[in-house]
Prior knowledge:
The structure is a single chain. The chain has 191 residues and is mainly alpha-helical. It has ten helices and no strands. The chain is elongated. Mean pLDDT is 88; it is low at 186-191.
Amino acid sequence: xxxxxTSSQNRSGWGDIRRRLETFDRTSLLGLVHDLYQAxxxxxxxxxxxxxxSTDAVEKYRRLVxxxxxxxPFSRRRVSLRDATTAITEYRxxxxxxxxxxxLMLTFIESGTEQAxxxxxxxxxxxxxxxxxxxxxxxxxxxxxxEARAEAATRLDWVRKRAKVVGWGYGDYVEDVVAALVNGGxxxxxx
Length: 191
């Protein structure tokens, strides 16, 4: 019987949670949100970004992304593209801020390109992750204001120049995508 109970708990979804939440009064709901806030730094960042938006929010996420992609080479921190991607996704979900999300993806690419150029770091999976972020920027390009596109183009031009010293075909890929974005607004890889 306990096995069935565990099995049904595994199949619970948002609908079950929503029905349960609808029974909560204001005090119980605030208590739950407080417990979630206390449970993890990620929850705190999410709630701050969603409920207390500020210019500092993107900066906090930018630091998380840069430190995950290119940690201090003398530290014992490992490179974690997954943690960087999680931070970007968390920011996007909590704010819906497309320019801020593109800013974080640019930080991911800048940090990764710099690490590859400085330390010769990277392999096929690493460069594929950088290329996927570049493709995501290309997909979001049309949703950016002219000012945000101009700022992104400046940062992408730096990446393009820096990527020329990187192997694995990465420099050529960046060159093609950036040229397409800057000259035409879309890229063949983002289509």
